[in-house]
Amino acid sequence: MKLTFRLIGWGLLLGFSLSSSCQRQLTGDIVGKVTDSITGEPVPNVQVYTEPPTQVVSTDQNGEFSIPDVPEGEYEVRYHKDGYQDDSKKVVVKAGQVVRADLSLKPLKGLVYGTVMDAETSEPIPGASVTTVPPTVSVTTDAEGNYRIGPIGIGSYTVKVSKEGYEDMGLQVTLEPGDQKRLDFHMKPYIPPQVEILSPEEGAVVPSSDVTVRWRGNEVVEVFKYRLLPDPRYEEWTETTERSATFERLDESGEEPYTFEIKAIDSKGEESSIVRRRFGVDAIHGPALWIKPRAVSVEDFTVNPEFEVYVMAEDVVDLLGGHIVVEFDKERMKLREDGVRPGDFLLTKYPDGRSLTGHSTLLSQKSPESTPAFLRSWEGFKERRYSW
What is the radius of gyration, based on Cα positions, of the chain? Predict the structure, then answer.
C-alpha cells in the first residue's frame, strides 16, 4: 500500500516536472537594435511591442531591446518614437530560440546631397553656396564639389546653388521620411551682359541733324538703357529692347561733341559697364545753338514755352538786306544770331508761307518799344547758349 502511494507521488512529481519543461520550451525571445535610417546612430527610448500583444519594452541607450518568453508563433514587432515614422517588422518565434528584429527607423526628416560641377568641363566646383528654401539652410561645397544638407524636415524645397563666375541654379526636391536624395548641379559659367555700339564711329561727324545710333548686345541681354548728352531732351535714361535709336534735330555743338551712352541689363538686373560713343553733327553750316524752351514776348504775341527754340545760320532768310525771318510752328522758332538791331524789320510767318496775323507784318512798323523788348529776350537767350 505504501509502495503504491510512493509510486503515485513520484508519478505526479514527474508529471509536473515534464509539464513545466514543456512550457519553457514553447517560448522564445525577440531581441534587436533600432538605428536612425539616415545617420546610422542607435535610437534610444523607442517603444517596441508585438501584435498579438505580449510585452512593451523600450530600447536602451545603445538602441537595443529584448522581449523574453514570447510564445511560439508569428508576430509583428512594432516600433514607435516621436520624431520618427512608425514602422514594423514580421518575425516567427520558435520554442527555445532567439529571433532578431533589427530595424532602421526613419526620422520625419530627409537628406539632400550631391556634387556641384562646371557644366562645360565637368570639373568639381569647390566653395559653392548650396541653400534650401524654405527654410534657409546653407552649406558650402568641399574641395571635391560635394555637399550634404540635413537631416531636415520632410516636405518640398528649392535647392539653390550660387558661385561667383557662374549662373545661379535651382532644383526642386521633395523629401519623405528617411529620404536621402542626390541632386547634382552642372553650373554654366556666368556671361555678363555686354553691348557694342555699331554706328556712328567714334569721333565721326554726321552730315545730318537726325542721327541714328545702332548697337547690339550678347545673348543674355534683356533690355538696354541709353541717353544722349548734352542734349536736355535726351539726358534721361531711356529703356528699350530695340537695337537702335534716332535723335532728331541735333545741332552742331561746337567744341563739345555729342556723347551717346548705353548699358545692357540681363534678366537678373545685372548691368554692364556704360559704353560711350562721341560724335559731331555737321548738318548746319555756320554757328548754331540749341536753347531751352522759353516764352518770348514781343508786344502782343508770345511763343508758347513748350516750343523748342533754335538758332541756325543756314535757316536765315535775308530780307531787305540784313533783315531776318522769325518762323513759328509746333516744333521750333528760328532766329538769326547776328544782325538783330533795334529798328530791324522782322517778318512773322508759318513755314508754309501763311502769315501769322493774316498778312505780312513788319515788326518795326509797330511801336518802337517792341524791338528793344525782343532784344532783351534775345539777350537772355544768348546768356544760356552753348559754346560757339
Answer: 47
Domain at 109-187, CATH from 3.40.50.970, 2.60.40.1120, 2.40.440.10, 3.40.50.1820: 2.60.40.1120
**Residue 241 has what pLDDT?**
96
Rounded distance between C-alpha atoms, residue 36 and residue 182, angstroms: 19
Domain extents in the chain: 27-105, 109-187, 195-281, 289-383
pLDDT tens, position by position, 65-108: 999 999 999 999 999 999 999 999 999 999 999 999 999 999 99
> In angstroms, rounded to a whole number, what is the distance separating the alpha carbons of residues 115 and 185?
6
Distance in angstroms (rounded) separating the CA atoms of residues 208 and 24: 114
The whole-model pTM stands at 0.52
- The reply to whether 109-187 and 195-281 are identical in fold is yes
Which positions ≥6 away from 20 have C-beta within 8 Å? none
Burial class (CB in 10 A: 0-12, 13-18, 19+), 211: buried
CA atoms within 13 A of residue 383's CA, in its CB half-sphere: 6
Mean pLDDT across 301-314:
33
Its CATH architecture, for the domain 195-281, is Sandwich (2.60)
